[in-house]
Amino acid sequence: MPELPEVETVRRGLAPVMEGAVIRRAELRRPDLRFPFPEGFAQTLSGRRIVSLGRRAKYLLVDLEGGDVVIAHLGMSGSFRVEQPAGPQDVPGDFHVPRGKDPRHDHVVLHLDTQAGARRVVYNDPRRFGFMDMTRREGIDGHAFFRDLGAEPTGNMLDADYVAAKFRGRRTPLKAALLDQKNIAGLGNIYVCEALWRAGLSPERPAGALVTATGRPKKELAVLTGAIRAVIAEAIEAGGSTLRDHIRADGSLGYFQHSFSVYGREKEPCRTPGCSGVVTRMIQAGRSTFLCPACQK
Questions:
Q1: Are 248 and 93 in contact (CB under 8 A)?
Q2: 160-291 adopts what CATH topology?
């Protein structure tokens, strides 16, 4: 499943085309994705101007004139592409591998009128684990998808004091606590592994061990919080990690996966300066965790 940096990359790729555009027609080529589309979804979208594109955790948010918001999730294999109705596709960037464009899996097509002319934004999803929903902007914080989400790892709310309040007294393994979306929204397996390696912390360590008896963050927690923010920021800057069949909105791939320090590097030397350890893989709650036992304590 695409992680937060991949979703942010998609948002940035779509924004120049979609923001300010009018949806002339919305075309649904099937009645559902993971879930059925909202009743009257195509009709509600048609004729509406797109005000802005946002993101909350791993969800794309398309704000429409009039206060409605489209909520889109990419699932395992969902991707967007931008096309001109005729002539070459408007997809800047070199292609590292062919992008998903099998028309059998083009499930949603937004026909847009933009300042640059007519465009199509196509949602392609072979596995159909993605979904689209709609809600009102004024009630979005109470929506079932968002009401329990924690702080964004890209926002100012995420600091050591905030994390200490979430972790205090908890015996949950550190990795599980970081993956809990009620604590920090949008963190996934890849970047949790990377952040724990940067902070030199074992994924099995109890989360509460990083908090003092009075609820203050220990120095290790401050280091971890900084590592989380840094690894997410670097991934967004690099364009996302695009594992498997995930692609950027413009069709090109991100390259941050080539810079992973621990994830997917089982049996390779640890990259921590002065460390002679070797990266190992362990299973936690059915998911792979990559770490260096020599320097992550």
A1: yes
A2: Helicase, Ruva Protein; domain 3 (1.10.8)
